[in-house]
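Let us practice reading a record.
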Amino acid sequence: MALEGMDVELVQKLAYDLKNQIETQMRSLISGVDGIVGQLEGVWRGADASDFEHSWQSLHRPALLRCADLVGDLGQLALTAAQHQNQASQA
């Protein structure tokens, strides 16, 4: 019979790492694309340019923000599991 459980401290560390990675890397990516899209406005005009910028602002950017939120939620889920494990171990 296999025992179940976790290394609480390691899970907490990895959960914080996950949350920090998503915060820095995904948000940095979004910010970088924002900058590129902003630069395109100065060199690309017309209906296609407007469609491109609208697509970024209304579809792709929100999707990436949602993705970042979901991965952050995954890190929070691991933190909550570690807290529950701590509570169960102390009982």
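A brief commentary: The two ends are 22 Å apart (CA to CA).
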